Amino acid sequence: MKRTKQFLSSPLVIVSGAMIVVLVVLAVIAPAVWGAAANTENPMFLLRKPSAEHWFGTDQLGRDIFARTMVATRLSLVTALICTAVSAVLGIVVGAVPVVFGKRAQRWTSSIINVWLAFPVILLAMLTVIALGTGAAATTIALTITMTPTFARLAQTLSATVAGADYMAAARMFGVSGRRQVFYYILPEVAEPFVANVTQSIGGAILAMSSLSFLGLGVQPPVYDWGRLINEGFSQVYVSPMAAVGPGIAIVFAGLAFSLFGEGISNQIRRAYKPLPSAMSKRELDNPPKMLDKTNMDLVVEAAAERTEQHRAEVERLRAEDPQAAVVTVPRPAPVLSVRGLTISFPEGKRWNTPVKGISFDIEAGEIVGLVGESGSGKSLTMMSVADLAAPGSYVAADSIRFEGTDIVGMLPKDKRKLLSGIGVVFQDSLTALNPSMRVGRQLAEVLECQNGTPHREAMERAVEALEHVGIDPTQHAERKFPHELSGGMRQRAMIAMAEINHPKLIIADEPTTALDVTVQKQVLALLRNECARNRQAAVIVSHDIAVLGEICSRIMVMYHGAIVEIFDTALLRTPEKLKHPYTRALVSSIPTLETDKSRPLVTIDDELVSQQSANLADDDAPAASAKTIADATGAADAAAETAAVKEER
Amino acid sequence: MSNETILEVRDACITFEKRDSVVHAADHISLTMKRGAMLGLVGESGSGKSTLAKAIVGMQPLDSGQIIIDGLSQHDRAKLRGHARAEIVQMVFQDPYSSLNPRMSVGDAIGEVLETYEHLSAEELRDSVAELLRLVHLPAEVASKMPDQLSGGMRQRIAVAKCLAVRPKLIVADEITSALDVSVQAVVLNLIRSLHEQLGLSMLFISHNLAAVRYICDDIAVMHHGRIVEVGPAEQIVRSPKDPYTRSLVGAIPSLGDAGRDVLLDPALAAGAPQPEGQR
């Protein structure tokens, strides 16, 4: 077991573990070794100060206080362990087991725990002691009663995840026995953090037990524990401080031992859920992979040529319409975003994991482009990195990322932020993307205040205006509401308003309608489409649903295993057999539509088949662009654009 | 009730009280389903379809009305225990990441269900698990895997295998493909279809995706605001919907036939205006 080994090698665990071993050994052997010295009254040595013979001095009956402290280990430890163990078990029974009996049982026990927790701990302990009488047994019971609700609450919180999980509901429905539910479902979920907490609590229990004894409520003479010893030594604290300090040291030692051991366990749990730290050197981390040799420049050049062709056709058409016109101007849009060889990697131990493998693409001003791919294909990573919202821990490398002609690779963060305020982002989940504790209008206005330094009042006015633009009825006063007070569709509209408010040149929308119902989805997509047309913006819509992209986009880029494998004109979706890449074809025909033939199975995507067929495809074409040809190819794409620009004017 | 009917919902009502209003999650719902049929239940979020699903499997009490499965009302079923109760109706859940115990291997999870009603030797258990995995088109080696080693689509197929282990008379599938990628959705839909053909399962297939429901179901019921607004053969619902809500639902489905036509460039549509009739 690697985890056990890791756990046992932590210095915290070694030290505290050794301390616990010392305590346990003392508890076992102390009465035999020091029992005689501890109980022999010696009238010759009353109230002596510490000496070589009596390390902690002697008490008023001449008994050796050091020996008594050692002997008291057993009672102090045993009572603390008993009350912690009993209250932990009771806590599990009250807190976690009701999960098996369903919601009503959970509600009942929850109220019981609430009331129980409301009593002040010391008061409850004292009342119990008064009711049961003083003595070791009574104090143990009192402590158990005060510790149980804390453990019960912890067990309840920890088991809440299981209680709400579908697999628990399923187990109940399958008729899995209650005993099995407890031992195979609930306890494993509760165990680790619970054990850590219980271990830490032993230290607290020793302290609490000692406090009660010190106050005279705990064990009564002739029996003694550490607390009782402090109580007895307290009268001579000014003459012989060690009489009280000695047992105090024992309490601190034991308390620390268990607290630190518990801490060691929780550290281990925390570590188990944390990803491995990178094992790479700084130099290696400064040079993440670039994968320029694998980039899809051929597709970008092809797409640019296609666009040029379309543009030329448009010029021809206008000219044919009006042969008298002296000049026909159809501005050939320049790319608003131009990405070359974007590679995103995560360090994993000694190796790089590269989910985005050197992709290149252009987004022209005013066009809406779709980026389609499955979860894990790297599509969201790509667009978020372009907007400088790269995932934490990721390393982004690129030949160039040009936004409106300016390369942001290697730019200072301050300048980058300023330039990228020209990109508006629409996130998938509006509920988490909007600040839940801030009114919607305030959040929109904040964008203007931060980006342009617009005065507050004016920013608020524009926020209200922006909300009206996205079709939210002004009489609803959405600006005064909190995000959770709006419906999902309304929230997504507000989110679009927020992205649009500073008139960005480019909108990036990451699965903007995935969380919405189909009828609302259509409205939100239409809103996005119309807003882009009104503000002459370009947009990239990231989605896993190619049918949705087909409605809103003019071009679609297909991402598969971190690479762009095809860029095509959306109209091609009407004739899927003309699509080039086998993955795109499979993707299109795997979606059931209202016309799908019910008698045949749906097409599924077979990774092996796709890679085989795409290998054939690559053989047919020229070999993929190498790193060296990237610059040339980029030049070719730009040149194609330029020729069109020259040709359009007579 | 004839032996041909597996599920009959009679005038079922479920209401939830919110702070200042009452939500009718099920508003006098009546529905019948034949044995061995695939019935689709379509509706959007908040339509009450998931609440109805929970009521059918007994996770949600009814305010009034009856849900009769295989001749037993909800009260009759509540009296049964263990496998006798489990084999009447089972459910496949929406979220593949929450429907398997993360601390139990696939083999143990399926074996556990088998052991609720039969005593099997280790070898028989292994064979039965392998057989169930084969039914959902997974290799027997998957049995030794833990859920976190599996993709969403595989997890969902294992959830189906667990259901099949009970040999239930009715399976309720609640949005089982909505958390999956489209290409994985196709795998699961194909599986459900082939299982229906092989085993003659009776299944209530609940989804917001009308196209998916049309593809695998014979009949479709459309739910809106806690009511069933339309029931009929799948083709009829899709081709000539009668209810206005069904019509807007059909109209909202993106169609590949419209790809590249820029159909959305229409301010009226963005404002949330109703769809022109007959638009597909």
UniProtKB/TrEMBL annotation, chain A:
Q: How does it sit in the membrane?
A: Multi-pass membrane protein; Peripheral membrane protein
The protein's matches in SUPFAM superfamilies, at most eight in alphabetical order, are given as: MetI-like (SSF161098), P-loop containing nucleoside triphosphate hydrolases (SSF52540)
Q: What class of enzyme is it?
A: hydrolase
Where exactly are the transmembrane stretches of this chain?
12-37, 77-101, 113-145, 151-174, 194-217, 237-261
Q: Which UniProt keywords apply?
A: ATP-binding, Cell inner membrane, Cell membrane, Hydrolase, Membrane, Nucleotide-binding, Translocase, Transmembrane, Transmembrane helix, Transport
Superkingdom of the organism of origin: Bacteria
In this chain the ABC transmembrane type-1 domain maps to 73-262
Record-listed E.C. numbers: 3.6.3.24
Write out the similarity annotation.
Belongs to the binding-protein-dependent transport system permease family. Belongs to the ABC transporter superfamily.
What name does this protein carry?
ABC transporter ATPase
UniProtKB/TrEMBL annotation, chain B:
Q: Does the keyword Ribonucleoprotein apply?
A: no
> Which EC number(s) are documented for this chain?
3.6.3.24
Tell me the GO BP annotations in alphabetical order: transmembrane transport
UniProt domain ABC transporter: residue ranges? 9-250
Gene Ontology terms, MF aspect: ATP binding; ATP hydrolysis activity
The record, for SUPFAM superfamilies, names: P-loop containing nucleoside triphosphate hydrolases
Listed A to Z, the keywords are: ATP-binding, Hydrolase, Nucleotide-binding, Transport
Q: Name one Pfam family in it.
A: ABC_tran
Name the source's superkingdom: Bacteria
The question of whether Oxidoreductase is a record keyword is answered with no
For the protein in the UniProt heading, the enzyme class is hydrolase
InterPro entries, alphabetized: AAA+_ATPase, ABC_transp_ATP-bind, ABC_transporter-like_ATP-bd, ABC_transporter-like_CS, P-loop_NTPase
PANTHER family recorded for this chain?
TRANSPORT ATP-BINDING PROTEIN
Output this protein's name.
D-methionine ABC transporter, ATP-binding protein
Q: Write down the species.
A: Bifidobacterium reuteri DSM 23975
